[in-house]
Amino acid sequence: MYLSLATTHRPATDLGFLLHKNPVRLHETALTFGKAFLFYPEVSVERCEAALVLDVDPIELVRGKGRADGLLDQYVNDRPYAASSFLSVALGRVLGTAMAGNSRERPDLAATALPLEAAVTPVSGGEALIRGLFEPLGWNVSVDVLPADYATLRLSGTARLQALLNHLYVLIPVLDNDKHYWVGEDEVTKLLKRGEGWLETHPARETIVGRYLKHRRGLARQALERLVPETEKEADGRDERLTREDAIEIPLRLNDQRLEAVVEALRAARARKIADLGCGEGKLLQRLLRERWIESLVGVDASTLSLDRAQRRLKLDLASGPSLGRVRLLHGALTYRDKRWEEADAAALVEVIEHLDSDRLPALEQIVFGIARPKTAVVTTPNADYNVLFPNLPPGELRHPDHRFEWTRAQFHGWAEEVGRAHGYGLAFGEIGSRHEAFGAPTQMAVFSREAA
Predict the structure, then answer these.
(1) Which of 380, 378, 389 is closest to 435 using CA atoms?
(2) Do the strands 34-43 and 27-31 form a parallel or antiparallel pair, or are they unpaired?
(3) CA-CA distances (angstroms) from residue 179 to 75, 172, 192, 202, 302?
(4) What's the rounded mean pLDDT across residues 208-218?
(5) Taking a C-beta distance cutoff of 8 angstroms, is the pair 299, 327 a contact?
(6) Long-range contact list for 434-441, CB < 8 A, 24+ apart?
(7) Maximum distance among all alpha carbons in the chain?
(8) Where exactly are the structural domains of the chain?
(9) How far apart are CA 60 and CA 37, in angstroms?
(10) Helical packing angle, 254-268 and 230-249, nearest 10°
(11) Cα–Cα distance for residue pair 238/259, rounded to 1 Å
């Protein structure tokens, strides 16, 4: 496996000071599973490149396992060759000082964002995952496809060298989805250390944490709670909503009416590419799949559990499921930019906004209406005025314990109108469910339509 790091900073030869490796020498490091070699294929004032080559001994990988069964599989596999946790270990051993952001000779340069390039080969995981991991971090990503489902990953951008090394250290094992050693609590500490300053805001942080920690749920939960304490609470709340909130609303068949109203609004807007933001278990996506006028669908949610259920509901892993590429499920948070769904011409936020703390709502507004700017956005939320009519909802309580708020019609109209004015959207309001003369309908809806420039 091969990793190269390069810069065009002038003088580019300063890369040697940042990596703490003299460009005129071959640097060799012994590892328990082989050897790592670092050398410089290009050294000039204009451009300097360092290459780390890892020579893994396949015999050492199986030595001492004491197993006769599957012996051929132990020796014949891609572990010695495809970029994986072996490469991360080598990074830590060979470039540990650079990963810490230290440079005795060039301390100012170590703290400066530089033009950087990196290439890693071969990597696995697929182009969609590769882009989903590195593009939100600001890297320009190119993927050169290789035989046998491998690829060469190329990154370019401007950042501190320490940031690039830490991104690679964490995300290379995530692409491989395995680690060659036992994962314990010390790996949580390493992950949080190397992910400090970027992992907590990454839209795919749950995927990163889960794959880095070999899907050990207890460790993943611990890491997520330390990264973003509210993440697990929000995800758990969205799943709990299926029991308590449905128990309140099922007698009205409100969920079915809500989905039909949203589909009709999207049909009227002539939407072709639709993003279901906060898609949960995929009920709206399942309903939209029946519509032939829709070209593509994207579902985004912060809960990996909900996305797993959505995948099963939509039969994405079955031959009988939707045609290839028509539906994508993405793990992400709606309060952080995610370019993967920004091409949608319509967005749906069905019973989503009330699950956000009020101080995080402006971030969602900016991401959806200020940056992505779909032509149409459909937002539904409970009507708090109607709550007094639910016989099994105690006075003053919200329909679900994870709701941070439930707005009256006046509050919802005020919020929507302010968002529309700020971002250039026209508005149409609607009500979903049987309407009470005094308290309105149980669900309220706003359809935002972007005005022509």
Answers:
(1) 389
(2) antiparallel
(3) 17, 10, 17, 21, 24
(4) 80
(5) yes
(6) 434/252, 436/386, 436/389, 439/383, 439/385, 439/386, 439/388, 439/389, 440/383, 440/385, 440/386, 440/409, 441/383, 441/386
(7) 83
(8) 2-181, 235-450
(9) 18
(10) 110
(11) 17
CATH code given to domain 2-181: 3.30.1610.20
Tokens of 145: 């496809």
Mean pLDDT to the nearest integer, 92-104 = 91
Reference 360, options 274, 261, 278, 450; nearest CA is: 278
Which amino acid, residue 337?
R
Map tokens 């900016």 to a residue.
366
Give the pLDDT confidence of 153-192 residue by residue, as tens digits: 999 999 999 999 999 999 998 988 665 555 667 788 888 8
- What is the average pLDDT value for the chain, to the nearest integer? 85
Please list, residue by residue across 299-326, b when 16 or more beta carbons sit within 10 angstroms of its beta carbon and e when fewer do.
bbbbbbebbebbbeebebeeeeeeeeee
Q: How far apart, in whole angstroms, are the C-alpha atoms of residue 314 and residue 281?
A: 9
Contact 185, 219 (CB under 8 A): yes
Judging by DSSP bridges, how do beta strands 273-277 and 346-350 pair with one another? parallel
235-450: CATH architecture: 3-Layer(aba) Sandwich (3.40)
Give the pLDDT band (50/70/90) at residue 78.
very low
Mean pLDDT of 271-300: 94
* pLDDT value of residue 297: 96
Tokens 């972007």 found at: 450
Q: What pTM value is reported for the model?
A: 0.52
Contact present, 209 and 195 (Cβ < 8 Å): no
Q: Token pair of 86, please?
A: 């072996």
C-alpha 181/C-alpha 191 separation (Å) is 15
Separation CA 446–CA 432 (nearest Å): 11
